[in-house]
Amino acid sequence: MLSSQWSVVFKWSFIGFSCFVLLTTETSGASQSNDPVDARLVEGGSRCSGRLEMKHQGKWRTLNVKITWGEATVKVDYAQVACRQMDCGTVISIKHHSNNTVHRPAWEVNVLCDGTEHTLKECKDLSSRRRVQGKNLTTSSTEVVCSESVRFGNGNDICSGRVNIKSDNGWAPVCEEGFDSEARKVVCREFGCGPPMVSRDSSTAEETLASSQKLKCNGNESRLQDCASSTHTCKKARSFTCEGSYDVRLVGGENSCEGTLEGKHEGEWRPLVHGWDSWKPQYSKEVCEKLGCGSVISTSYRYLQKRQDVWELSYRCRDSRTDSSFCKSWVAGSSTTIKTVTCAENVRLVGRPDRCSGRLEVKSGPSWAPVCLGPFTKENAQVTCAELGCGFGDEYHGKSLINTAQDTSLVFKCGGNEKHLLDCPTDTLNASHEDCGPFTTEVICTERPKEPSINIITMNTGNYDTNYKPDVFKGHRFAISCSPHSLYKPFSIRLRYEVDGDKAAEWIQTAVEDAIFLFPAPEDAHQGFYECDYNYEFKPEVFSKPQTLYLTMKERHDVRLVDGHSRCAGRLEVEHQKKWRSVSYQHSWSLKEAAVVCRQLGCGTAFSTSKVDNSPELLTKWRFQSNCDGSERALMDCGVVKNWPSSSTVEVVCTDILHQPSIAIISGPSFTEDAVQRMIMGHIIIINCSVEAQYPGGHFSLKINNVNQTHSLTQPAVNHSAVFTFTVTEGNYSCVYHNFLLNHNFSSESLSLPIKVTDYTNLMLDDGGDEDSSCSGMVMVNLELGTILLSAESTVWDLKHASVVCRQLGCGDAISTNTVTLPTKEKMALFYSDCDGSESALLDCGTTVEWFSSSYVQVNCTGQQGAPGMK
Ligand SMILES: *[C@@H]1O[C@H](CO)[C@@H](O)[C@H](O)[C@H]1NC(C)=O
Ligand SMILES: *[C@@H]1O[C@H](CO)[C@@H](O)[C@H](O)[C@H]1NC(C)=O
Ligand SMILES: *[C@@H]1O[C@H](CO)[C@@H](O)[C@H](O)[C@H]1NC(C)=O
Ligand SMILES: *[C@@H]1O[C@H](CO)[C@@H](O)[C@H](O)[C@H]1NC(C)=O
Ligand SMILES: *[C@@H]1O[C@H](CO)[C@@H](O)[C@H](O)[C@H]1NC(C)=O
Ligand SMILES: *[C@@H]1O[C@H](CO)[C@@H](O)[C@H](O)[C@H]1NC(C)=O
Ligand SMILES: *[C@@H]1O[C@H](CO)[C@@H](O)[C@H](O)[C@H]1NC(C)=O
Ligand SMILES: *[C@@H]1O[C@H](CO)[C@@H](O)[C@H](O)[C@H]1NC(C)=O
Ligand SMILES: *[C@@H]1O[C@H](CO)[C@@H](O)[C@H](O)[C@H]1NC(C)=O
Ligand SMILES: *[C@@H]1O[C@H](CO)[C@@H](O)[C@H](O)[C@H]1NC(C)=O
User: Whose C-alpha lies nearest to ligand 3, atom 10?
Assistant: First the structure.
């Protein structure tokens, strides 16, 4: 039916990279024997667009291409064959449907076309075979739009080539004359490509044609056939290329430099995704460059509610080693994740691998121009870096650029807060003007301002030597300096002190170039991490990278007392410059200095200090020159020493010359509950106070502090210890050692030992009444398993034991004890004794063991029943 309209058949030949089309015309009847028509487009509303069908074995069916490789071009080539057969120009676009609602019979072919074939039959696979398989029902189809009256394209690159248009005489190239940039624009637009690329002058002269179409386009026509045309004898137009024949674009953004990344493949625009998450930064850069945009600002993903058809970079791209440009082997797929790329419109940094540093160029018409350094400012750098999403301008400098065609440079006068560099007021400057300086500017941006330097300063160092880590001694004031050394004036500099990852303290200084944080008299708690950072006024929420140092607090060990019985009394020696020497006695030496010595040694306060003349000859000592007020932590914090020949030395006696005694419970029924020592009420406790051998003699007192009162027991020290035996009461116990030395009473107290007393009865008398406790009756022992009778099967049980029972229960003395016999044996407590009758509790001097017995003990005490308790 359509074959009657065929009037021309074309022969295409490709020579190298550029293509020459030799036009031949034949009449439609000439090749009927070989049936030249085996492709058509149906249901598209026009002869030149619609679903692609193939004729095979005399039957038209939907064409399904089943190719597992070369996907990128094959379908376009099939479509080219179809467009040509239909005399419809070349392919403009293709849309592949994989999930039609209508199921149709199809021919599934597994062959390759290169786009030059006259019929689909000519397409062969590599082994020159042609495989066509019938499929009864398919949901796949390919929809093709051909250009009808214009031919453009070069093989599968549909955005590059020579333009031919259809006339009454068949297809012919257009005239070069009149085929200007406006006409190219129209062609590029008609074929869905980017704007025309600047024409290359390298094209050779063209032959003269007898007669061809001379066009006159305004540039706003949507199709070339809308342009005015007239027939002339002319040279044929050169081939040209549209931008975007690369086939990527960014859509949906505020401008053409941002949005969803789309790729055109097989004539169809779809989001372009990267299947293996191996998108490389340079791919985005390539996209921005290709689109004539500036630097890449960001690449991100967008998640969709619904799956969408996409082009996916094929598995073959995984092995692709071409890092400089992303792989062009794409396959159809679907995805819910699409990629968005944002490029700067007018600004770029080039010449460095890092996107956030490089030579600054600004767009000037279609090209890019460098910027000269002379009038460049840090505010310009700031705006540039902020615009590119690169944080802060960290640095800028000139870089010589040879062979710039530019003779003027834009001069920016940014305030620093502009969103785009081109928003800043500008001037132009002649490039040869001396103010221009080096003709290019390189800008280096940083995500966060770089870290400051941080240093400890002590009185000893007093300098900023970064490599030298001075010792910080307890009590010795120090300072921490923090210096940003940055391009901009810092807004605030902060120092933070960290304990276990928490910021424990923070100090901030504003309006300074460098900050010095002073610390008086540090203690252990000042040891730790100090972290310094800073921010700028124009972006106060972003702080620089921090710099951290760990401060170690050291104890001074440069003072000692020797030749006494104690480390807290004796002749003073001081270490200075690694030499230990005695200190010569000078009139300025006083109890204030001695107090500092005692504090530094952890020996309490100063008891006395005196001059000792110990040698008739002069020996080199330290002469101490003091600035002490007596409250300092260390002697060398408040004075300096010098060599000094002297015969005198200083002796210091501190109050804590006695060693600290220790306290220990030797015995007493006790148990530990909630990690607290608990004693049973009314029981005897034995406590041992002892002290390390130091001075002979002395005495101990055991101090008992409870809520209501303090009292103490005293014993002489025998072999440096004393034992205290008494009935326990609740309170905090401590041993104090006293000794009379140097005509003075010295003492030293142990740590405090808290003792809790528990009202715990392990014994009772049961008279058979309702009362829990009684002063006569069967002896019951409270054991872990419960309360059981005390067995009378004991060789030692007598009135002495009964009296211990009565005493323990607060029932006075024992009157009698007797045995009661039962008809059967039951579980009772057998008693094993070591009692002499004076004990305060039965289980203090004996142990019970569960066994079976048929007799038990009864005890009768003088006292009346009442609460058992302390005496
Ligand atoms: C094809 O379409 C049917 C119904 O329209 C749907 O259920 C099915 O999931 C689709 N298949 C694919 C692969 O999209
Ligand atoms: C396809 O259809 C033909 C005739 O309608 C039938 O003979 C054949 O079995 C079908 N093939 C399949 C795979 O369904
Ligand atoms: C194209 O531009 C010309 C002149 O520049 C104008 O006269 C014409 O109306 C425009 N056509 C369209 C479709 O915009
Ligand atoms: C720049 O200065 C040079 C030499 O002074 C001069 O020849 C040139 O015309 C000037 N260019 C512009 C654009 O002013
Ligand atoms: C008391 O403690 C001291 C020191 O630990 C020890 O030498 C002494 O033997 C103890 N005394 C008793 C009675 O346990
Ligand atoms: C023991 O000392 C602690 C704290 O040192 C105190 O809380 C407690 O009340 C004291 N106990 C007695 C019985 O005084
Ligand atoms: C302290 O005194 C109060 C009242 O004077 C008394 O009730 C309490 O039992 C006393 N505590 C001790 C531990 O002696
Ligand atoms: C004191 O210790 C000495 C020697 O260790 C010993 O001979 C002496 O018996 C001890 N004295 C007492 C009262 O324990
Ligand atoms: C030292 O203590 C004893 C008893 O504790 C006392 O008799 C004596 O007066 C005290 N001596 C001095 C100098 O305080
Ligand atoms: C205990 O002694 C009193 C007084 O001697 C006597 O009245 C009482 O019966 C005795 N009870 C027992 C259980 O022996």
Answer: 220
Residues 142 and 47 in one domain: yes
The answer to whether the beta carbons of residues 755 and 674 sit under 8 Å apart is no
Write the single-letter amino acid at 385: C
For residue 656, what are the CA distances in angstroms to 595, 660, 689, 722, 861? 12, 9, 18, 21, 53
Which range among 499-508, 681-690, 831-840, 842-851 shows the weakest confidence by mean pLDDT?
A: 499-508
Query: Containing domain of residue 563, as a range?
Result: 559-654
Asked if residue 88 is part of any domain, the answer here is yes
Residue 776 beta carbon below 6 angstroms from any ligand 10 atom: yes
Q: How far is the CA of 706 from the centre of ligand 7 (A)?
A: 9
CA 376 to centroid of ligand 4, rounded, Å? 20
Is 779 found in the same domain as 767? Answer: yes
Ligand with an atom nearest the CA of residue 133: 2
Overall pTM > 0.85: no
> Hey, CA dihedral for 189, 191, 196, 197, is it positive or negative?
positive
CA–CA distance, 369 with 384 (Å, rounded to integer): 15
- In the chain, the number of structural domains is 7
Tens digits of residue pLDDT in 708-734 = 788 899 999 999 999 999 888 888 999
Tell whether 577 and 624 lie within a shared domain: yes
Ligand 8 binding pocket includes 821 (Cβ within 6 Å)? no
pLDDT digits (tens, 9 = 90+) for 178-208: 888 888 888 887 887 767 776 555 455 566 6
Instruction: Kindly state whether residues 806 and 840 are assigned to the same domain.
Output: yes
- Pairwise CA distance, residues 825 & 805, whole Å: 24
Here the CATH number for the domain that contains residue 695 is 2.60.40.10
Q: Which ligand is nearest to the CA of 664?
A: 5
- Segment 743-769 shows an average pLDDT of 85
Pocket of ligand 7 contains residue 708 by CB under 6 Å = yes
The pLDDT confidence band at residue 462, using thresholds 50, 70 and 90, is very low
